[in-house]
Amino acid sequence: MSINELRAIATFAKAAELGSLRKAAVAQGVSPQAASQALAQLEQHLGVRLLHRTTRSLALTDEGRQLLEATQPALGALERALDRVRQAQDEVAGPLRIVGPRSTFASVIWPVVDAFCREHPDVQPDVQLDDNIGNWVQDRVDVGFRIGAPPQDGLIARRLFRVQLLVCAAPEYLARHGAPRTLEELNVHRCSVFRHPGTGQVLPWYFEVEGQMVYRELPPALSTNDADLELQAVLSGQVLGQLTSMAAASFIRSGQLVPLLSPYVTEQMGVYLYYGNRQQPTRVRKFIDLVVERLSDPAPFVLTAREIAAAEAAGRKALRKHR
What we know:
Elements: H1 3-18, H2 21-28, H3 32-46, E1 51-53, E2 58-60, H4 62-90, E3 94-100, H5 106-119, E4 123-129, E5 143-148, E6 156-169, H6 171-177, E7 191-194, E8 205-209, E9 212-216, E10 220-224, H7 227-235, E11 241-244, H8 245-254, E12 258-260, E13 266-275, H9 282-295, H10 305-322
Parallel strand pairs: 3-4, 3-5, 7-10
Antiparallel strand pairs: 1-2, 5-13, 6-11, 6-12, 6-13, 8-9
Helix pairs in contact: 1-2, 1-3, 1-4, 2-3, 5-9
């Protein structure tokens, strides 16, 4: 059954209930001409007359009475179902499907999800962290996050904060191996490289040199497809690593990591929030609002240029004293 046939049957039933095709048109928010045309098309489609109507009165034919008796229960059930959907649209309850990158992102998204669930305990979040880019429609995503470039066309995207790529070392590593002062010196250091979980591709290290993005492919002392493991390897003093500011900021501020080569830090990537359209259930709209409120302040995940330079200077000063 097409939507036009369903609307015509609903118009017919409302006209029979109210005794007037004009009143039925008003009740359904259409013009009297549209209601009359819908009824005429239905009668033509069925090949029978459903209503006897004059300018002042309206009565069911035998065929019209049979159709009304057969369709009233289904129309009533349909109206109740539509009412439930309308009510659910306004409730902050139900499933909320969230996707985002696995790498270093759990610590970013969980505080927001936790705060949202405390305020709205009837929401059931389904959080899928995966570094592969899935299919928005097939995965039935409500809200997504991406690190890097904006997501595909057809989605609404909002940049939340920039992502810095920072060469970092633990003080233990610096005490044993020293610190590189130029990009070229990285080739003689123990460097970790990240292998993309989806493609298996080894990613180079990226830098900003005189306003341009450049990259270096380095001989790996360690390669891994897990960002948390790479972070632990750097913290333990095994290797140098190029880490995102999301992963490294708190450890740099606590002195557990030292940023290096600070003049070459690149900030061209960003964290993006994205969603399908503006007609969202209330639970989705409220979650988007909370994400924007919490994550538009980048302070926990982004270091200022002064912080980076000061942390590098302090680390190099401590290294000179140690030696």
